[in-house]
Amino acid sequence: MPEGAARSGLAGVFARHPRIWLGSALGLAFVLLGTGAVVAGVSSGVTATFTGPASVVDETVPRAVPETQPAATRLRTCSVKSIAGDDRLKTLHASVINDATGEVLFARKGDDPARTASVLKFFTGAAAISVLGPDYEIRTTVYEGSSPGSVVLVGRGDTTLSRMTSGESVYKGAPKLATLADEVVTAYAAKYPDVPITELIVDASYWDPKDNWEESWNRSDQVNGYQAEVTALQVDGDRADPTVQNSSRSTDPVKRASIAFANALATAAGTPAPTISSGTAASTTKLGEVTSQPVSKLVAQMVAKSDGALAETLARIVSVEMGLDGSSASLQRAIPSAIKALGGELGDVTIIDGSGLSKKNGVSPTDMARFIGIVKNGSSDLDVVYKALAVAGETGGLTERFVGSAAKGHVTAKVGRISTAVTLAGVIDAADGTTLTFAFYAVKEGIPDTAKAAIDELTTAVYECGDNLANN
Would you identify the CATH topology of the domain 81-133+325-468? Predict the structure, then answer.
């Protein structure tokens, strides 16, 4: 082709646009770089070579797979979110567990320890049954004194011991001081026929007599008849009226019991009442003894009536029988140890008392709900506790609650109420046949009674959801 003539074909195009072709070639080279290709001999006269590792899949090497496949998670659609958010519940701590599978279906602050109120009696009753045994009886004994004319009364925590001479106190079947006095006078007269009993020495040192009131309790509960001072010797739960569950308590239960027994001795012997002093038994010569009903019956009474005085003395006896000192401080060790021995799973817990009266107690609702499953299944004779619970709309503290509700007759639970919490915990036999364990705590300083209705509505909603309960 003559010089200057127009070029045709690819050569002509390249000649007319050499920079465009050079850029395209280099771009192609970078694309091919990822596959390990080599680009060379670009017509500009520059030679460019690009190398890189080839990506090769070895089909002979087996791919790693999990040893176990994750279980399918059921999508639950029954929501109680709006009810759980009811302002009447204030700060809600809640947990609902499928008793058969152990799955937590619903939780609000479920793992956070919170005040339980009387729901704590689940722990106290179970600990008493486990540590003491269902047949354990609490003894109240009279020994000879160090000299003729004196006798020593030793208390070991029987709250039910009664000063009534006829009829029954709130504690049905309780032992009576009159019975004990008759035994003592008969045995004493046989040994010292001409020496009257002139001195009664009282030993209430089974635990420290001064360790009788938790500082976080309200003294108004003592005046209003809900709680007695915790002493190893007292009569009728220190009630002013032994036949009334909530009857004003005194400021000195040991003194009330001592005077009552001194008068019982005078009546039995036909002599003046002996003088009273405090001390300890030096002799082991027994003149008389009465025993409480078996612990299984005491626990049933304690749970059914939510009896704080009985709960506190049982907790102290548990401590002593575990080799501790029976102090209020020892309950932090004694009660959780007993619960763990029964298979209870416990995170951080704070046990201040046996009744649940203190706002300083702390048990998470999930721990409580899980333990209620153990109680329900009757492990280690714990059916005693379960059978004493109230039934919604029918018995106990739930007689007037859940009336007209779909859950009536289908909730078996322990109620709780202190000035800073309203609580309910137990078992729901749900509408779909699922058994659920639950614990609900509505917590706030000065919480009103309206929280009870809100808890009942939440419980009823859970009953209707059953295993379809959504945690949203």
Answer: Beta-lactamase (3.40.710)
Mean pLDDT in residue range 417-424 = 97
CA-angle at 237, arms to 361 and 197, nearest 5°: 135
Nearest-5° Cα angle at 369, 367 to 374: 95
Quick: pLDDT tens for 226-276.
Answer: 999 999 999 999 999 999 999 999 999 999 999 999 999 999 999 999 999
Distance between CA atoms of 314 and 20, rounded to whole angstroms? 97
Distances (CA, A) of 170 to 24, 29, 185: 102, 99, 27
| Cα separation, 128 vs 159, whole angstroms | 14
- 448 φ/ψ angles, rounded to the nearest 5 degrees: -80, 165
Calpha distance 24→20 (Å, rounded): 6
**Predicted TM-score of the model (pTM):** 0.84
Q: pLDDT tens digits, residue range 118-151?
A: 999 999 999 999 999 999 999 999 999 999 999 9
Token look-up 């109230």 returns 390
How far is residue 82's CA from residue 407's CA, in Å, rounded to a whole number? 19
pLDDT tens track for 262-285: 999 999 999 999 999 999 998 999
Backbone angles phi, psi at 78, to 5 degrees: -90, 110
Amino acid at 266: A
**What is the DSSP track for 367-384?**
HHHHHHHHHHTTGGGTHH
* Tokens describing residue 287: 């003149």
DSSP 238: G
Whose structure tokens read 């492990």?
379
